[in-house]
Amino acid sequence: MAIPVPLQTRATPATAAPLERFNTAPAAEAAGTLLTCLHSHAWTRRLVAHRPYPDLPALLAAADEAAYDLSPEDLAEALTAETRPALPEDTYAAAHTALNAAHAAYEARFGHVFVISLAGLSPDETLNHVLTAIRSRLNNDPDEERLVTAEELRHLAKTRLSNAL
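User: That's the sequence. What structure does it adopt?
Assistant: Structure tokens below.
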């Protein structure tokens, strides 16, 4: 007499590839992963709803497309979870002072934290890149800066998603 074997649930084996685990994880678990990449519930819902993804480039393309469709309210939600870019530990005090002043001016002008993707930069380039970008972007009008900020959030989300999976 054969013993019935229970059907497997959607539990993902621990040895599965990260993308496979993401594709088969319960929706709440997949959403939790995505929210650490970009804190937008609209973006997260869209990506979770379109699983499974055949490969990481397909997921990143979907993430990029979903980020382009974010409303101003969705962008504001995402910005509330962002923090200032981290500087290398050995950055000297005068640089911190200059950067803190630039961040304060930016936040006073635009009402949210300055976001920028630092992917691909060496630690030695970080400070100059951030200072140059924040000073340049202070000259943007609010509509132009909203577009630049959205683009930076897209870059951050793709980098974080790549790192997560």
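Helices lie at 18-24, 27-37, 41-49, 56-68, 72-80, 93-110, 123-137, 142-164.
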